[in-house]
Specification:
By secondary structure, the protein is an alpha/beta fold. Helices cover 41% and strands 18% of the residues. The protein has helices at 25-36, 50-59, 74-87, 106-111, 124-139, and strands spanning 12-16, 40-43, 64-69, 94-99, 114-118. The longest helix is centred in the last third of the chain and has 16 residues, at 124-139. The two termini are 18 Å apart.
Length: 143
């Protein structure tokens, strides 16, 4: 895990839509919002496998993987990415998710350490604040 540099370090975030979900408008809006909030953004492109997402996250030494799915595969793809990150040496990389996620599935994902779980209509400010807070508390271990 990279150490936080004094004051100048930017959050590195990988934005991805793993699996068969080609609806990219929302994830591109998120990528731009993260960039505008001062984060270093890496976009996986369309239709990466969970394996590709995890490998890219580890190779790029990101702080956070932001996953988005609208196709209902969140209970398969999100946990798979999380598990692969741990297997590939990225156990410290945070995972946040969003998309169409039924309320009944949210506690299961939270238990796995996948947070955020925002749906359509969530403000960009709320999502950005969540990512920054998680990185500060969990990745950079600041108080």
């Amino acid at each position: 895990m990279r150490k936080k540099l004094t004051g100048a370090r930017k959050i590195r975030i990988l934005v991805a839509k793993p699996g068969l979900d080609g609806h990219d408008r929302g994830v591109l809006v998120l990528a731009r919002a993260f960039r505008d909030a001062g984060m270093e953004v890496i976009y996986s492109g369309l239709l990466p496998t969970p394996e590709q997402v995890a490998r890219m996250a580890v190779d790029e030494d990101v702080d956070v993987v932001a996953l988005s799915l609208l196709n209902g595969a969140h209970m398969t793809a999100f946990p798979r990415v999380k598990k692969l990150l741990e297997k590939m040496g990225g156990e410290g990389i945070l995972v946040v998710g969003g998309g169409i996620i039924p309320e009944d599935d949210k506690p299961k994902l939270l238990k796995l350490g996948i947070t955020g779980l925002y749906g359509p209509g969530t403000s960009l400010e709320e999502i950005i604040a969540h990512v920054k807070e998680r990185v500060r508390k969990e990745r950079w271990k600041e108080r």
